[in-house]
Amino acid sequence: MAESNRPRFSKLAEELIGEFRGLETIEPRRQVKRATKTSADVIEAIVNKYHLGDKASPEQAIRERWPELVTPTLAAYSHVVEITKSGWLMVMVSNAVAKQELSNNRRLFLKKIQAVPGCSHIRGLNFRAG
C-alpha cells in the first residue's frame, strides 16, 4: 500500500503491534505527525503574514498618512503600532496632552482612518502612553 492510503492506528495500537512483531519504537511517544507543507505554501504564508512584497499593509498606509489623518502636531507626539485581530488600531502617544486631545477627537479621526483604502474594518482607536 502507498504511505498516504495506509490505515492510521492510535499510538497505543501502533506500540502494541510493534511489540507483538518484535520491532523497536523509533518515534517519540508524544510526537504529533502533521501533513508536510510545500516550501511555496510556507513562503506565501510568511509573505502574507508580514506584508512583504508589493502589497502595503493597512498599518503602513495609516503610518504614511498619519499627519494628515490627525494634525501634524499630534502626529509628532504619536505613532501607529498595529491593528489588532479584533480591529482596534493601537497608537503609542508620548505626551499626556496629545493623548487627551487624540481621545477627545477619536470619532473624527476614526472616520478619516476608515476612509483609507484597506482600513474600513478598523472598529476603534486605543491610545497608550509610552
Strand elements, count: 3
Number of helices: 6
Question: What is the chain-wise order of helices and strands?
Answer: HHHHEEHHE
Mean pLDDT, nearest integer?
88
The CATH topology of the largest domain corresponds to GMP Synthetase, Chain A, domain 3
CA distance, first residue to last residue: 61 Å
Describe the 3D structure.
The structure is a single chain. This protein has 130 residues and is of the alpha+beta class. It has two domains: 9-50, no CATH class; 58-129, GMP Synthetase, Chain A, domain 3. It contains six helices and three strands. It has helices at residues 11-21, 39-50, 58-69, 72-76, 96-104, 106-114, and strands spanning 78-83, 88-93, 124-129. Strands 1-2-3 form a three-stranded mixed β-sheet. The model has no long low-confidence stretch (mean pLDDT 88).
Short summary of the structure?
The protein is α+β, with helices and mostly antiparallel strands and 130 residues long. The protein has helices at 11-21, 39-50, 58-69, 72-76, 96-104, 106-114, and strands spanning 78-83, 88-93, 124-129.
